[in-house]
Amino acid sequence: MSEFDIIIKGGSIVDGTRVPKFTADIGIRDGQIAKIGRIDAVRARRVLDADGLIVAPGCIDLHTHYDAQIQWDPWCSISGWHGVTTVVLANCGFGFAPVRPSDREATMRTMSRTEAVEVEAMKQGMLWDWETIPEWLDTLDRIPKGVNCLSFAAIVPIIYWVMGGAEVAKSRPATSDEQSEIDRLLEQALAAGACGWSIQRMGETTAQTDFDGSPMVTDTMPEDQLMALGRTLARHGSGFVQIFQGSERRLEENFAVIERLAATCGRPVLFNPVQAVTGHPKHHLRCTEWLEDCHSRGLPIYGQGATVRQPFHVTLEQWNLFDSAKTWNRALQGSREDRMRSLRDPALREGMLREYEDGTIPLAVLGGPVDDYVIEGVLGAREPDPMAGRRLGDVARERGVHPVECLFDLSLESDLQTSFLTQSATSDDPEHVAELLSSPYVVAGVSDGGAHAKFTVGGAYTTDLLEWLVRDESQISVEDAHYKLAWLPARLAGLRRRGALLEGMAADVLVYDPARIRRAPDWRKVEVAHDQPAGEWRLVQKAEGYHWTLVNGEITFDGATCTGATPGRLLRDA
To answer: CB-based contacts of 437: which residues, under 8 Å, 6+ apart?
Structure first.
């Protein structure tokens, strides 16, 4: 009988703890790392030859929205394709529990608007065999999974459950009795294994709206209610908070609120996003200086770094990230026909142009000036688009119109099927992004995996970091990269047995070729995949250079080929 299930032989081990890489073998038994050292190959049922390859801990993605997709895609692609072995669900306060059967339709519409997951895909692909958060966690525990998962308690559905739906909850603050019930349900969720709670608090001009274009109930939540949630977590004594707070225009105010929350709950608070912004090279430094100051005062606040080069692929049939601008929000509601009707309305067009000109939509959300958008072509067209590859600003000048009007006109001419490529929404200056990651209090991300899948592929952030900042630009070491991708997020999430390659730890392992790892075909190019329930499509981006991905000691990907193995687990309370 073999002593080990798998031996990974002769690889360069980057263990996640920042120890300099070293050459050794790893013996895996019963889903755990049983031995690291020199191991005779005959002692294993299977040997993976890792000579010349990096062996590293599986990546841990703290910011995903795979709540629906994990029910039909156990490997949570595209994240699973890019070396992620653990995902955290129910970020930003959005989720599917607790939800009564009568509220399921509205909940799916909300997720469709704010996270761009199609309602029909959810209707066909979701099990909906739960109502409460403990029941939701039981479902996650039971379904096949190719990755490990944790779930926050999402605050929006808790409030709707207690107050009788969105309409009532948005019309008035919670009463003291209702707040007590909200706290009780949160305590129940934490006791059942939720890893903490999540919330979006972006104010009236939020870019992530409810299905009707109005702010989420938590966007305008009074601060005393926020602190009540913090006290509930403090009483529980474990878990962490994810918060999407305020706007870039009120940075100091946002910081003060988060400081008070961290002081109240005494648990790690993950603030997102923290990012380097093109054209504003000092923005990220202000954020990292603040994080350092917080820790000097004993406040456990961390930043979710937006580190991935991430252009948007914009079609006005699907786009919803301009919702912070009221006229854009109103115009881009409803069906394709509704949107086309709005885009032909002179008054709406004038209002949208005015909001663009006055900076209502931040450039980071726009993906740079509209002039610099590049025409990608018409989705599904049989013939190449003669304007593909051209700058929108150049076409606008030829037509004698403003670039925003040209955006509208080209979209209308193709029934909203023309796709436009933006600049990276986050900085693509490697020095600035490396400077952001140099803060000991910033974790790599933000993927938004499972969300916005019709216009971005942030789930490739892991591969992007290793390809771009480590290999191509030599801005950070491979040891620092895997610390940021695995060990630090594991510590924030309270995962005691993951995030590092150490004896006794869970065998979540990546084996890859550092010379070949890359986003394929490259970071700007994506593919359309019709692989969602109801025949719905999404944008995907593959990876190259990964040899094996292991979750709990089982191989889930052999190269780019999924093995079909589903060894993932729900990690209740870590």
So the answer is: 305, 307, 444, 469, 476, 480, 484
309-320 burial, b at 16+ Cβ within 10 Å, e below that, comes to bbbbbbbbbbbb
Is it true that the peptide bond before 98 is cis, omega within 30 degrees of 0?
Answer: yes
Q: CA nearest 404: which of 361, 456, 457, 454? A: 361
E strand or H helix at 144: none
Is residue 494 a contact partner of residue 195, using CB atoms and an 8 Å limit? yes
d(CA 439, CA 434): 9
CA distances from 430 to 82, 368, 426, 427, 448 (A): 20, 17, 11, 8, 21
Other beta carbons within 10 Å of 23:
12
Q: Please give the single-letter amino acid code of residue 131.
A: E
What pLDDT does residue 319 have?
86
Give this prediction's pTM: 0.96
Identify which of 519, 310, 518, 307 has the alpha carbon closest to the alpha carbon of residue 433. 307
Q: What is the DSSP letter of 486?
A: I
pLDDT the model gives residue 248: 59
- As a whole number of angstroms, the distance between CA 154 and CA 44 comes to 43
β-strand pairing of 148-151 with 84-89: parallel
Mean pLDDT of 184-202: 98
Burial of 229 (0-12, 13-18, 19+ CB in 10 A): buried
Task: Write out pLDDT tens, residues 480-500.
Answer: 999 999 999 999 999 999 999
Over its C-alpha atoms, the chain yields an Rg (Å, rounded) of 23
Task: From residue 58, give the alpha-carbon distance in Å to each of 164, 342, 558.
Answer: 41, 46, 14
Phi and psi at residue 369, in whole multiples of 5°?
A: -60, 145
Token pair for 320: 């919803």
Architecture of domain 59-310+426-558: Alpha-Beta Barrel (3.20)
439 three-class SS? coil
Q: State pLDDT tens for residues 340-349.
A: 999 999 999 9
**Cβ neighbours of residue 386 under 8 Å, at least 6 residues apart?**
none
Q: Choose among 152, 157, 189: nearest CA to 62.
A: 152
Strands (E), 261-366: 269-275, 301-306, 311-314
HEC-encoded secondary structure of 165-186: CHHHHCCCCCCHHHHHHHHHHH
CB 470 within 8 A of CB 431: no
Phi-psi region of 545 (alpha: psi -120 to 50; beta: other; left: phi over 0): left
Angle at 496 between CA 267 and CA 556, to 5 degrees: 120
Domain locations along the chain: 59-310+426-558, 315-424
- Angle formed at CA 506 by CA 241 and CA 92, multiple of 5 degrees: 20
Task: Please name the amino acid found at residue 164.
Answer: G
